[in-house]
Design goal:
Elements: H1 7-10, H2 15-24, H3 29-39, H4 43-61, H5 72-87, H6 96-110, E1 124-132, H7 146-154, E2 158-161, E3 164-173, H8 177-181, H9 184-189, E4 198-201, E5 209-212, E6 214-216, E7 218-223, E8 229-233, E9 244-246, H10 251-257, E10 264-267, E11 270-273, E12 281-283, E13 298-300
Parallel strand pairs: 1-3, 1-4, 5-10
Antiparallel strand pairs: 2-3, 6-9, 7-8, 11-12, 11-13
Helix pairs in contact: 2-5, 3-4, 3-5, 4-5, 4-6, 5-6
Length: 312
């Protein structure tokens, strides 16, 4: 059966992507992966090959060195190897479900999701940091996503926190609505709540660093890296999710204790569509108070925000 590449995987053939892979050395991952796939003789061996190569991509991307961390080689190499795995015709029977499981394993292992483990003991402050893939690549195929680069850079960091030591683990999420609908965030982070002391999500910003106080359950509808658009409430398991969720980060203290040239802002601005209306209303101080859950305002991403109309 012929397995077509996705629009995102096909974009890896662009000259900019090939140049990034060649300069970084990550271009060598494809022939090595292809050779090991060809040598696989059963589904179990194929799974070992996929897990090994995906983990190697993540490990190589999080190595520290003298140069600034670049998230683009990992992104493009992942797409090249995913397309290779999607098109692979093994010498043994491989069902569509088994191939899908291999693709999912490759995604999670190459994104750090399977590496979110911490040392045991009370001496550690456990911190999870997540970022996102590059996006808007049709207009700027050579772009990076600073949130993903920051996550790669922070992975493995340790630093003193009083008498304890903080240890950081990171993951990088895709910019694809379908992956979030399928629960990739829950898969990555569900087991961390109650284990990690902090879970911090970064996203691509603008000319300042926004500490976002409110998160809305309504999605803005912009195109993702597959050209797919989703508008409406995010699918949330269990009882109905609140329209707004307030961050638990000590945002005022973070601003007060931060030094450096970058402007940091506690951003409380939201945009609501009031119940029974159709005109968005921007509220600088946060969502309407006292509204019962069944009559909650519809949350929308503010049109003044850099993240408008993107999954990240």
């Amino acid at each position: 059966m012929h397995h077509d590449t996705t629009p995102e995987e096909a974009r890896a053939d662009l000259p900019e992507a090939r140049q990034i892979l060649a300069r970084s050395g990550f271009g060598a991952a494809d022939p090595l992966f292809a050779a090991d796939l060809r040598a696989s003789t059963d589904p179990g061996q194929a799974r070992e090959v996929v897990a090994s190569h995906a983990s190697r991509l993540w490990t190589e991307s999080t190595r520290t060195g003298p140069d600034p961390v670049d998230d683009r080689p990992l992104y493009w190499a992942r797409l090249v190897l995913r397309a290779r795995l999607r098109a692979w015709e093994p010498s043994f029977p491989l069902s569509e479900a088994e191939r899908a499981a291999l693709l999912h394993l490759f995604e999670t292992a190459s994104r750090g999701i399977t590496d979110l483990d911490f040392p045991p003991g009370d001496r550690w402050v456990r911190v999870v940091v997540t970022g996102f893939d590059p996006f808007r690549l049709d207009t700027d195929p050579g772009c990076s996503n600073p949130s993903g680069a920051a996550a790669l850079d922070l992975h493995g960091w340790t630093f003193p926190v009083g008498e304890r030591t903080a240890v950081v683990r990171a993951a990088v999420f895709p910019v694809r609505w379908g992956d979030f609908d399928a629960g990739i965030v829950e898969e990555a982070l569900a087991d961390q709540y109650g284990v990690a002391d902090a879970v911090i999500t970064l996203s691509r910003g603008r000319d300042r660093f926004d500490l976002e106080v409110w998160n809305g359950v309504w999605r803005g509808g912009g195109e993702d890296n597959l050209g797919v658009s989703r508008t409406g409430r995010a699918p949330v398991a269990g009882p109905g999710a609140p329209e707004w969720t307030r961050t638990s980060l000590p945002v005022e203290r973070i601003v007060a204790d931060t030094t450096g040239p970058d402007v940091m802002v506690v951003n409380t601005e939201v945009t609501e569509v009031p119940e029974g209306g159709d005109t968005p209303v921007t509220r600088p101080g946060g969502p309407t108070e006292g509204r019962p859950p069944e009559r909650a305002a519809v949350a929308t991403t503010s049109p003044t925000r850099s993240r408008t109309a993107t999954p990240c």
